[in-house]
Amino acid sequence: MSLDIIGAGYGRTGTLSMKLALERLGFDPCYHMMEVGMPRPGCNENHLDAWHDFAVHGKRIDWRWLLKEYRACVDFPTCLYYRELMQTFPHARVILNTRDPERWFKSWSALWAAFDTVNDPARVVRNHKFFPFVVALVRDRFGASIERDSSIALFNAHIAAVKATVPADKLLVFSVDQGWGPLCAFLGVAVPDEPFPHVNEGEGMVEKLKMGFWKTA
After folding, report:
1. What gap in Å lies between CA 97 and CA 75, rounded to an integer?
2. pTM passes above 0.90
C-alpha cells in the first residue's frame, strides 16, 4: 500500500468529514489526528511514541513507516508536513481543505478550550504522551497562546503556501460544503449514491476527550 492523497488543510476545516468521505471512496484507511491517540490494530502501533519523540525531542520521523498502511492522510499533524510527504510520495495528489477564516478560528479556539479542560495530568490515565505532543507541535507553529489575529494570519499563510507549492494539476482546493462532485472528479471516481458525510467535529468535544484520556475502559 502507498499513500495516494495528502491532505494539506489545517484541522477544523471539515477534515473528519473528509476522512470519512475518502474512506467511502476507497482510500481507506485515512490518517487523521484521531489515529495518533486511538488504536487501529495493524496500522498505528507506536505512532504516539513516534510523534511525541518528533515534536518534543526533535527526533526524525520515518514517513514511509508511519503511513505504510494508509491510503490518505488529512488533518493535523500530517498537514503541517505536506512538503515532506510530497517528496516521500511523489505520485500522491494533494487536497487543501479550506474554510472561512473567522469560522475556522471559532472552531479552533473551541478545540483548544476543550484541550485545556481535559489536559489534567492528575486525571489522564491513558495515552499520557498525547497532550505534550500536541502542545509542542502547535506551540511550534502558533506560539504559547491561541490568539485570533496571529492564528488567522497563519491559517491564511498556510493556504497561500500550499497553493504556491503544489503543482496546479495535482491540487484540489476544496470546501466540504461543495459535496462529492469536485472531489470525485479530481480523484477520477464515481459519485456515491449517498449524501456527503458531514460531521460536527466540535459537538461533545470535552466528553469525547474525557472518554479518550480519562477513562480506563
Report:
1. 9
2. yes
Place of cell 488543510: 9
pLDDT tens column, 52-85? 999 999 999 999 999 999 999 999 999 999 999 9
Pick the CATH number of 5-213 from 3.40.50.300, 3.30.1050.10, 3.20.20.70, 2.40.160.40: 3.40.50.300
CA dist 176 and 197 (Å) reads 9
Q: Interhelix angle for 101-118 vs 205-213, to 10°?
A: 40
Q: Of 101, 93, 100, 85, whose CA–CA distance to 183 is shortest?
A: 93
Residue found under cell 477513562: 215
Do 104 and 155 contact (CB within 8 A), yes or no?
A: yes
Tell me how far apart the alpha carbons of residues 131 and 215 are, in angstroms, rounded to a whole number: 15
